[in-house]
Amino acid sequence: MDIGTLTGANQLARVEGFLADATAKGAHVITGGHALAELGPYFYAPTIVTGVTSNMNMFDGEVFGPVVAIFGYDNIKEAITLANNTTEGLNASVVGNKREAARVASQIMAGTVNINEGFRATFASLDSPMGGMKQSGHGRRNGVEGLLKYTEAQTIGVHNGLLNFPWRGNQYNRMAPLLNLLSKILRRV
Q1: What's the N-to-C CA distance of the chain in angstroms?
Q2: Rounded to whole angstroms, how far apart are CA atoms 132 and 119?
Q3: What ranges do the domains of the chain cover?
Q4: Nearest partner of 141 among 165, 153, 125, 157, judged by Cα
Q5: What is the mean predicted confidence (pLDDT) over 88-103?
Q6: CATH of domain 9-148
Q7: What is the mean pLDDT of the chain?
Q8: Cα-atom radius of gyration of the chain, to the nearest Å?
Q9: pLDDT tens across 135-154, in order?
Q10: The whole model's pTM is what?
Q11: For labeling, which of 9, 15, 59, 142 is most exposed (least CB within 10 Å)?
């Protein structure tokens, strides 16, 4: 298995804090739940947690570590509600029949949603925009949307109509009688 390191001591403490809070309130660590100091100072074992409830920080907080909380659900509508019941929305995964999973994925409020995969399908595509929803970030990287964040839109209009309005003083003086007449006609109409 390939795993990467957390970004530093603060992130390691954050992951450990989420797990300490959850287990103190009744959640169960199925696997992992500990640092892997033999690999380096900020490695953490991939961790699976069950029994997470709404009074735990992990319920709707973004751990940003190799930790996944497993939730049960009774129907697809409830699963979608649980997935969207968070202030975060960076990445999500839906596992199942591809057609049904695509229907569910379109209802998940996350910047990227993978079907039958964790993250490689969306993260590896340089043409697909990547970024979060809600409080998981603003803007996108990759694809056209990613390039557009470095631009500033400008509109330039060129009039090519029948009537050219004056743009210099002497042109206005020549057109003033016509403009006054048009103004009177428009008032009557």
Answers
A1: 78
A2: 13
A3: 9-148
A4: 125
A5: 90
A6: 3.40.309.10
A7: 86
A8: 28
A9: 877 677 666 776 777 677 66
A10: 0.65
A11: 9
